[in-house]
Amino acid sequence: MMTTCANECAGEEGGIGLVFLEDMGHHCCSKQKVKRGLWSPEEDEKLVRHITTHGHGCWSSVPKLAGLQRCGKSCRLRWINYLRPDLKRGTFTEQEERTIVDVHRILGNRWAQIAKHLPGRTDNEVKNFWNSVIKKKLIAQGLDPNTHNLLSPHQTKTKNNNTNASKFNSRHQHTGSVFTMDTSSGNKEIIDPKTLAIQNSYINQTTLNESITTFEFQNPNLAWIDGAQSTQYSTMMEFSSCSSMESTSISNSSLPPSRFGILGENCMWGNAYEPCFDRADLPQQLEKVSTDGQEQIYRANNELNGCQQTDNAFDGCNFNDFEFMDSALVPPGICCHVNSMDHELAWDC
DNA sequence: AATAATATCAACCGCCGGGTC
DNA sequence: TGACCCGGCGGTTGATATTAT
What's a Pfam family in this record (predicted)? Predict the structure, then answer.
């Protein structure tokens, strides 16, 4: 028989000098006077003593059993976010910071999921750290913290005066990249990135030569890769050919190194660099590399679209600063560049 | 030293999905 | 089948700490 929280909470009385909530909020404790605000050391002690002795059981019954004038939700939150013995305190390490950025790129604001990749950290802690630190760093580097894509010059100007973004745009524009056109599908269905994140997008593999293999995300709804809402082509990435999941590096490639990692059991994340030209003009602005069945492989022309060499603008900037630009999910089991975690995300340029 | 502005983070609020009746 | 409860989650708030003026 289920015991209702309201019944359990009935009869509780507020103490003197505390801030109590009456007749509002806390739907589970609507008939109870509950204290709000910061927890006192005495309350913490009561809660810890109760949970270490009896376990929390039903959270709604914890306040009464522990002698607290809080609602069950508040007790649960206090325990999970602050009193739990396995919590890691202190500032986030660089490794943790990278993990947050990497996983956030895949999952978005799913803080609880992200926190699972950081032992001892809570979703609340991760969320606060993101909002107060990481978000600002990304913006300072000209990246949209929501999509992890480049901010447009306008957005960059609006959100931040830092000029790194425009510098990076310039650099990006002469990066040769390989793409593929999906000429067989007219499917423009827009897919939720979060949904895509849990799908096993099939990848088509094309070997261009002995050392370079390209992989195509065949799902035509690859909006997620470059942040566009719907595209009919998908970004290609270059990988060194190898036969296992062992770490490898790209050789003899004009591309900056791509980064990949394994996320959970069923998916893998990675990033690549995208071209700077308008998608609508894609076929005209790419040099055809090869044709393989229905797929046409293109390489971006370095001189296209008015993109000029602007290396000087990047003196002193490490390309690693921008390695986490674009990302995509690929299913596990393919071989690719997997040394992402070896790369430092250098926040300072 | 005083005040204002900004950053940090603990806690709350409201919603949602799953389970039970 | 619908109402209710609970745990969990993400967004937001507000108190406090820190930094700038």
Answer: Myb_DNA-binding
